[in-house]
Design a protein that fits this description.
The complex is a heterodimer.
Chain A (H helix, E strand, L loop, with lengths): L1 E3 L14 H16 L12 E6 L8 E4 L3 E10 L2 E10 L4 E11 L6 E10 L3 E8 L3 E7 L9 E6 L8 E5 L13 E9 L2 E14 L6 E4 L15 E4 L5 E7 L9 E7 L5 E6 L10 E8 L6 E7 L2 E7 L7 E6 L21 E6 L7 E12 L18 H4 E5 L3 E9 L4 E9 L4 E10 L6 E7 L6 E8 L4 E6 L8 E7 L4 E4 L5 E3 L3 E9 L4 E13 L6 E5 L2 E7 L14 E7 L3 E9 L4 E4 L5 E2 L2 E7 L12 E11 L4 E10 L2
Chain B lengths: L1 H13 L13 H5 L28 E7 L11 E11 L2 E11 L3 E13 L9 E15 L3 H5 L8 E16 L2 E8 L17 E12 L2 E12 L2 E12 L4 E10 L4 E11 L4 E10 L10 E9 L1
Antiparallel strand pairs in B: 1-2, 1-14, 2-3, 3-4, 4-5, 5-6, 6-7, 7-8, 8-9, 9-10, 10-11, 11-12, 12-13, 13-14
The chains are: A mainly beta, B mainly beta.
């Protein structure tokens, strides 16, 4: 099984096979990986990153109207914790939970997305954003709090017809405009009457807009005007330096021509620039181009600029044959020396290739071709790993940090037994990382689980997985490290996205080579985290892996269930995963062996996850009595396999 | 004529009866004869079908059994345990029984204390007639999990219990011919966690041919059961062979919806019939896939 990136692939530069190349790979991988902050993407037309996985219920405060009672608690939903807000409105009419942020930046998306389900009285759910001006913007989902099944709400705050509108707050001096780069609070309020509860999970910043690959220049027309409307050129430190840009017809990577940069700089700097001409690139995730050097030993700077910020990344040892370079734009984003989030809406600077003292040759020739900005789609597929941290992890785990940070590792009491403690100190925009090399087969799982104990500093935690060819997928947890209690962190495959490409664009789960825990984020801080019990989630399919022939797994949702029409668990859902297409026979039987109802689906069920729902009624539409019932699945595969599974479901009212 | 009138009255009464706590409280002997033991009922294995027949016992005896119906269940088991004790006391017999059904998500318990005596001397038109009454304690318990946590049904807790009582009657209307009946759960106890969930009243009535043989009985019984709105019929037979060393049993039960169960069983009796090892197998003829069909029951009984 592999996690596949179906769209575009970013890549860790492939050096030529020399002794130094392995070191180069590691250095660049770490460089690109650990000070990068990338958006996990969800579809080719929309992406999201997680604001809150709702596992830290204590981060939420709860309040309400007079004449109401309310509470907030954590509830385990199929092993995935979520926030449950319980309310009883006697004479009052609202209660809410809220989470505060120092300053949450939502500029990379245009919507808030979250999951919810509930029960009891069907009331309105309001979601509110409070910005730095203390202005509250809100949106009401009418009569939704009694939904018995998970619903997903996507509420737009940006665009021509945003869902959020100004409600209250601020003063005469404020602008009544939602400042998406300085969100201070997110609130979920129930308004109405009666009593009930709502469960909220997976609060995400979501982007619904489509970003089409945007080619800056393919150099085929030998015209200095690039596709963004800017005029390409060169820069030199002084007149002693020469640097020329031409469009070269011999052996371009593709098309008619490529760009050829020849320079002789001595000890000065020079380079070629390609203006971005205020193009909106805020939805792009990667910069991609092809490059080769005339001579070995060439190194250079890759620069992007906007909003008076020009940020450079060093590229060491440019190969002498065409190589694709794909850089996560988060490398250029957010830090004090990097391009601010607001700058990406109008990139006023350049893409540039620079040659500098101490890095580059004194003279040389470099070719580039097909410079474009792309957005990477999500990468569905399972991932998992295992480590109880009881072994000699001080040897197994290596650490690294950028120039503005330090990290130390130690063995401490963990969630169970020992855990790995990482103490870090970082200045603005820095990163630290601990990583372990391994040769592990994660092919049967779909997720990781580990225990995390934070403290002192609220930074972002990134988990990355690399396979044998150094393809790296990752997930980032915002502000995850500040909680001084044990958290259970689940990382499902659906939450991973491509970080950097290795030999290919797939994450090979059968040959995982490294796992990384990185701490990053803006601001200076000293802090620590303890990691323990990194383990495989046996979620190769929903539920327990049973391996009954071609029935790989079974998950019974709502067992016991209460078919009493109160909107809560009125049905039971049987999810099962088939390893091949199959005819499926599905029956409910009572404890006497009497068949209650035949729920067999018609036609062939496809391989993968299938579901059957039972509402607690017999074939003659009578409600069954409370008690135990058996369900039986028999699958006869079209490829010759078969399997059967029988278990118990309980009815209660 | 008087006997016929008594039977008629019993049948008329039966039409007003409805319902039950789940019927897991039977020993392998009773399963082996298709759960038909109402008129035959005379031992410690059938106390939840009525204690009246226990008056036949002249000495103390007990039985213990364990079963795992649908033994090939995945990831969970249905476990059934039964313990019954019967013995003579002054002017009658005393009975005690405990039945338990449990799985990983749910369990039931039923405890019974009963008394029965020969009442023929109080009615000149009766010859051999026995009546019994039993007090029952019933309990249901759902194991807490993430689903019970959020369902309002469990707001007041995951378990509930109640008391109720049964009455039963057994009469020999003719040599070797017995009739019997039982009314169970007469108070219709409520075992609902949130909504009312009354245990159905159950009425059973049976007629049986019973003849002692080799310290056991050769017998056959036909009985009916009204359980709520459902009707069930039971037919069973028991026959000792090899001088009572082996007791063969078979039965059939059918009923509302699609119930159609066939059962077989045997008992191996030793030590002058004081010790018996019982086994029964029940299979549904109209049940689900063959993969899950059939349940095995085993138990021992000992008479002091």
């Amino acid at each position: 099984m592999a996690i596949n990136s179906s769209f575009v692939y970013c890549f860790l530069i492939r050096p030529t096979p020399r002794v130094a190349t392995t070191q180069f790979s590691v250095i660049l991988l770490l460089s690109l990986s650990f000070f990068a902050v990338i958006l996990p993407l969800s579809t080719s037309t929309a992406y999201a990153f997680l604001i809150d996985d709702m596992e830290n219920f204590s981060a939420y405060s709860v309040s309400g109207d007079n004449g109401t009672s309310y509470s907030v608690d954590r509830v385990d939903m199929d092993g995935n914790p979520a926030i449950m807000h319980t309310f009883t409105f006697t004479t009052g009419s609202w209660s809410q939970i809220e989470r505060s942020f120092t300053s949450l930046d939502l500029t990379r998306g245009d919507s808030i997305r979250f999951k919810y389900r509930g029960g009891g009285t069907n009331n309105n759910l309001e979601i509110k954003l409070v910005d730095g001006d203390t202005e509250t913007f809100g949106y009401t989902l009418n009569s939704v709090t009694a939904s018995p099944t998970w619903q997903t709400a996507t509420v737009k705050f940006e665009g021509p017809s945003p869902d959020f509108s100004y409600w209250w707050g601020g003063d005469a001096t404020t602008d009544k405009t939602l400042d998406t780069d300085t969100i201070k609070k997110i609130e979920f309020a129930i308004s109405g009457n009666g009593s009930g509860y709502i469960i909220i999970d997976d609060l995400e910043l979501y982007q619904t807009k489509t970003f089409t690959d945007s080619t800056l220049d393919d150099f085929n027309d030998s015209n200095n005007t690039n596709n963004f409307g800017g005029t390409n050129g060169v820069y030199v430190e002084d007149a002693t330096v020469s640097c020329t840009l031409s469009y070269y017809e011999t052996s371009p990577y593709e098309g008619a021509r490529c760009a050829k940069i020849e320079y002789s700089r001595g000890s000065k700097y020079c380079g070629a620039y390609f203006p971005l001409n205020s193009t909106d690139l805020h939805l792009a995730t990667h910069l991609q181009f092809y490059i080769k050097s005339e001579y070995e030993g060439e190194s250079l700077k890759i620069e992007l600029g906007s909003a008076n910020k020009n940020h450079k990344i060093t590229y060491y040892n440019v190969p002498t044959s065409w190589t694709k370079v794909c850089i996560v734009l988060e490398n250029y984003r957010g830090g004090s020396s990097e391009i601010p989030d607001s700058g990406w809406y109008a990139m006023t600077g350049n893409f540039a290739i620079g040659f500098e003292e101490g890095i580059s040759r004194t003279s040389g020739t470099v070719y580039i071709d097909d410079v474009k900005f792309i957005r990477n789609p999500p990468a569905p597929g399972p991932v998992f790993t295992i480590d109880d941290f009881e072994g000699p992890y001080l040897v197994a785990y290596s650490t690294a940090a950028d120039n503005n940070a330090t990290i130390t590792k130690s063995q401490v009491s963990g969630y169970s037994g020992y855990g790995l403690r990482l103490d870090y100190s970082m200045n603005n925009g820095a990163w630290v990382v601990a990583y372990r090399e391994m040769y592990a087969d994660f092919n049967r799982g779909t997720g990781l689980r580990f225990r995390l104990y934070g403290g002192s500093a609220s930074k972002d935690l990134e988990v990355k997985i690399a396979d044998k060819d150094n393809t790296v997928f990752y997930k980032k947890f915002l502000s995850k490290t500040g909680y001084a209690y044990w958290q259970t962190v689940d990382l499902l495959f659906t939450e991973l996205s491509l970080f950097s490409k290795g030999d290919d664009d797939d994450l090979s789960l059968s040959l995982v080579s490294k796992i990384y825990f990185a701490v990053s984020g803006s601001g200076s801080a000293n802090g620590s985290i303890i990691i323990d019990d990194l383990e495989v989630l046996n979620l190769g399919a929903p539920g327990e892996v049973v391996n009954r022939g071609i029935i790989q797994s079974v998950l019974v949702e709502n067992n016991p269930f209460s078919p009493n029409d109160d909107g809560v668990q009125d049905y039971v859902r049987f999810n099962y995963n088939l390893l091949e297409p199959a005819n499926v026979k599905f029956e409910i039987v009572d404890s006497s062996g009497d068949r209650i109802i035949d729920l067999s689906p018609s036609g062939i069920q496809q391989a993968g996850t299938n579901s059957i729902i039972w509402n607690g009624k017999t074939a003659s539409n009578k409600r069954v009595r409370n008690g135990l019932y058996l369900f039986h699945i028999r699958a006869n595969g079209t490829n010759g396999g078969s399997g059967n599974y029988t278990n118990i479901v309980a009815v209660v009212r | 004529m008087k006997k016929l009138a008594a039977i008629t009255i019993l049948i008329l009464i039966s039409k007003s009866v409805i319902h039950s706590f789940d019927a897991f409280t039977l020993s392998p002997r009773i399963i082996g004869v298709g759960s038909s033991m109402v008129a035959i009922s005379s031992d410690e294995g059938s106390l939840f079908n009525g204690v009246a027949g226990a008056s036949h016992r002249k000495h103390w005896s007990f039985t213990a059994s364990y079963a795992m119906p649908y033994i090939n269940l995945d990831d969970d088991d249905i476990r059934q345990g039964y313990l019954g004790i019967v013995g003579p006391v002054r002017n009658g017999s005393l009975s005690f029984a405990w039945g338990n059904l449990s799985t990983n998500i749910y369990s039931e318990d039923a405890i019974l204390i009963g008394y029965a005596k020969n009442i023929a001397k109080y009615f000149d038109f009766l010859d051999k007639a026995f009546a019994g009454i039993s007090l029952k304690y019933l309990r249901k318990d759902y194991q807490a999990n993430r689903y019970t946590l959020i369902d309002p049904v469990f707001q007041q807790g995951n378990d509930i219990d109640a008391f109720t009582f049964d009455i039963s009657y057994q009469q020999e209307i003719k040599n070797k011919l017995r009739v019997g009946f039982s009314f169970e759960n007469l108070t219709k106890p409520d075992l609902g966690l949130k909504a009312k969930d009354e245990v159905e009243r159950v009425f059973r009535i049976g007629i049986a041919f019973v003849k002692p043989k080799d310290n056991h009985y050769k017998c056959v019984e036909l009985s009916g059961e009204l359980n709520g709105d459902d009707f069930f019929g039971h037919f069973g037979a028991e026959y000792p062979v090899f001088n009572g060393l082996l007791i063969l049993r078979s039965g059939y039960e059918f009923g509302s919806e699609r119930l159609s169960n066939l059962s077989f069983g045997f008992g191996i009796s030793t030590f002058k019939s004081k010790f018996t090892l019982d086994y029964a197998f029940r299979i549904s003829l109209k049940g689900a896939d063959d993969d899950m069909n059939g349940s095995h029951y085993a138990g021992i009984s000992y008479g002091y």
